[in-house]
Fold Leucine zipper with capping helix domain-containing protein.
Amino acid sequence: MRYRSLILRRLQYKRHWTHWLTVDRFPSRSMASKIYIARQDQFDIPNAEELEELKKANSRLQEELADQKKAISEVESEVRGLQSNLTLEEIKSEETKLQSEVQEMEEKLNKLRNGVILVKPEDKKVIEDSFAEKVNQWRKRKRMFKELWDNITENSPKDQNEFKEELGLEYDEDVDVNMQSYTDMLASLNKKRKISR
């Protein structure tokens, strides 16, 4: 047979709480649940004047808190500004580094002004020939790919852009590469060669 009993017990804590223990009894096992309720007789209920004083004190404390937060944010921003500035040692090391770079650049400039040839004509010709060959191969391969791609996608039911994405193909334009700029460079190289002959 199932029945419920109610037991009232007072616990000795810093806050005086009343401890209610409800026990449900079953034939084979028991269950318990605890409910804590604060004693109401320990609290002082303030009157209207005291409530008004508490509200004023609360608003005054809120203003002080806002002022403190503002002061903290100003100090933090000043600290960040100071941390972003270089120390004297860092400035000196940066200065020596920049002076060495300036000296290297001046040496290179003096070599160029004195007519020192940095690249041999044979090396220059080899590089220009290699560049011309690579641009021509690029042009041929692009044309061959375009012909194959047009044949493949001519009767395909899929959208060309979706099919291209599915295969993971990228055109030159997709990666911001323009063959025309390289072709113009090659044409100017050929023009210089004709003038020098």
Observations:
- The helical segments are 48-84, 88-113, 121-153, 160-167, 179-196.
- The first strand starts at residue 3 and ends at 10.
- Residues 132 and 186 are 6 Å apart (CA to CA).
